[in-house]
Structures are given as structure tokens and as C-alpha cells.
Amino acid sequence: MPFSLTTRELGIDLGTINTVVAEGRQILLEEPTVAAIVVEEQKLVEWGQTAKDMYGRVPEEEIEVVRPLKNGVIAEYEITEIILSDIVKKLCGPMLIFHPTLMLTVPYGVTSVESRAVHEAGLGAGGRDVMLIQQPLAAALGIDLPIGTPSGNMILCLGGGTSQAAVLAMNTIISAGTTRAGGLSMDEAIVTYVRRKYGLIIGQPTAEQLKIRIGAALQQEESQAMEIQGQDQVSGLPRPVTLSTADIVDALQGPLHEIVENTKRVLEKTPPELISDIIDRGVALCGGSSLLRGIDKYMTKALGIPAYRVDNPYTCTAEGAVKALRMREVLRRSLLRA
Ligand SMILES: Nc1ncnc2c1ncn2[C@@H]1O[C@H](COP(=O)(O)OP(=O)(O)OP(=O)(O)O)[C@@H](O)[C@H]1O
Ligand SMILES: [Mg+2]
């Protein structure tokens, strides 16, 4: 981990599922936003991948494994602040002689109370100057969309706890909308589908594995299969079942529909001149859920506008947050005030 004695400028994308930290053109850290807490003392044991690996494998009465963010906003303030402190200490040194400047991301549409919590967590973690940027704006900067011009650009940030659709021009968000339908609701939809169709109970991690390994947004020519172990709803005993791509496609239609509806609502609010630019340029898809097989084709069909997946779907928001630090004067009106 790089360690420096000068003032650092960090971009931190605080996501429901993953936290990504960038500086300059580098990604310094990428970890699941998961914390393991000792229940009795309410003390953090680990956070990140190590904490995530403990899920379901440690006694729940002793160690609780939690996601401190829900749908992109802070649900557990103290845990979030501890995670941010840990990031700052690791990167800037434990003595914190030079407090870093932080650009933290928040979802589009957060309330002032929610954004203030992120700002305070950044200050509490040791940030000297803490700024906030809306995720679709950061992501658009991170994929180098030409948002400084008067022509329209559209981006869909498909994360774990949110899906955000935004139209940008003149370095600002012209119209946007956020829905809670994201990767986690896709996992939940798979859990419900498997229970209803096969009478089997499975957990979120298994549902996520199914989605990533054999899932798709549209029916595929080549169907894949995966065997999983679930718990029979009636007998409570373990039972295997083999699911196919077609099953997962069926299961995902609900959340996908909600993502499309949110995007259509944003398009309805967008001035027609910008819409014609978007039709020419296409809609950029980013965020971990943009990796779902066939989602570009699915969105192209559902929206009637070509959609394409970006090259850096996981890291573009943090990369854009760093870029925003260098462009803070130009972006002055678009950055959130806490
Ligand atoms: N190949 C894949 N297919 C489908 N989904 C995927 C794939 N890879 C990752 N995901 C999903 O991406 C999601 C995480 O994406 P990301 O890291 O962008 O979320 P986040 O930024 O933490 O969340 P948010 O922005 O909503 O707060 C998870 O729900 C994960 O299951
Ligand atoms: Mg995100």
C-alpha cells in the first residue's frame, strides 16, 4: 500500500456492495463494503473481503457480518466511519500528519440528511477537505463522456443497491432518477423464484453465484446449467437442484423491468434536443450489474436506444471522483454541499 508524507487527494466510491479508492490514475483499493463486528463490544474485527468471507461461517451471536450501506446510503454510521478511517490510515499513515482531501460519491437523489452523514463520516475519518459528488456524474467523468459540451450524454449506473439513470450536459446532471432495483434485488428475485418453482430455500450468495455464472438478461442461444444445494421448504433437509440460464432469465425480469421504467421516466423528463444526441451516441452502462450477460442487448431493445457496456464498469465512479477533484472549479455548481 503506498504511503506518503504529502497531502493526498483520494476519490472514494462508497458503494452498497464494493468500495473503490482511486488516486491520480491508479486504483489503490477495491474491497467489499462489508464489516465483521464483535457483537458484545460493538468493535470492528475486519472489513472488506476477509469480513465477507466470514459471512455464514462465524457464530452470529459473537460476530455479526454487516453491510453498513443500504441502497447506496449509510445505514450504520459508526461502521462506515471506521471503514473510511481505516482507508485513510492505511493510505496516509497512522499519524495522519497530512490530512487528505476526499471526494466521496453519493447516489443521485439522496436527501440532505443522507449526504451530510457521508460528509461527516469523511471528516470523522480524518479528511481535511471533504467533497461530495453524485455517482452518475462521477461515472460519466470516469468513462470520459464529453459532458462539458451542450450535447446530451446518458449513463446507467447499475450497482448492487441502486440503479441510477442520468442525462448529462454542460458538466451537470440535466435529468436523472434512482431506483432501488440493483444487483441485490436481482439476487432476491432468484431466491424467490427458486423457492416458488422448486420449493427450495437458498441464500443470497448462492443466488448471486447463479446470476454471475449462468444468468442473463435475455434468453441465450447457448443455455448453461448449474447445480446448487438448497434446503427443502417442507422437510428442512438439503436437496440439490439444477437450474438453467432460462430459469435465471425468467427470475430477473422483475428487477430488469423496474430499471427500464426508471430509465424511461428520466428520458421523459429530458429535453428532446438532448434525446436526439443520446440516440446518436448511445447509452453507457456501468456498475457491476452491467456485467450481466445480454444486458446491453436487453436495454437497447427496451429503450429503443443503443446501449453499450463501458470498459471499466467497476472502477469508473472512483476514477471520475478523482478527476472531479482536479476539475473542482469547473464542477463547482454540480458538487453537492453538505
Ligand atoms: N458478471 C456479473 N453479472 C451480473 N451481476 C454482476 C456480475 N458481476 C458483478 N455483479 C453484480 O454487481 C453488483 C455490484 O456492483 P457494484 O460494485 O457496481 O455495486 P456498488 O457500487 O457497491 O452498489 P451501489 O452503487 O448500488 O451502491 C453486485 O450485485 C454483483 O452481484
Ligand atoms: Mg456504485
Could you explain how this protein is built, in words?
With 338 residues, this protein is an alpha+beta fold. It folds into two domains: 9-33 and 68-137 and 318-326, 2-Layer Sandwich (Nucleotidyltransferase, domain 5); 151-310, 2-Layer Sandwich (Nucleotidyltransferase, domain 5), CATH 3.30.420. The chain has ten helices and 18 strands. The protein has helices at residues 49-53, 77-92, 112-124, 135-142, 183-198, 204-214, 245-268, 272-281, 295-303, 316-326; strands spanning 9-14, 18-23, 26-32, 35-38, 43-47, 63-66, 69-70, 73-74, 101-106, 129-134, 153-158, 163-169, 172-179, 200-201, 225-232, 238-244, 283-286, 307-309. α5 crosses α7 (245-268). It is flat, with a radius of gyration of 21 Å. The chain starts with 8 loop residues before the first strand and ends in a 12-residue tail after the last helix. The relative contact order is 0.16. Bound molecules: adenosine-5'-triphosphate (ATP) and magnesium ion. Adenosine-5'-triphosphate binds at residues 15-18, 72, 159-162, 182-184, 208, 211-212, 287-289, 291-292, 314.
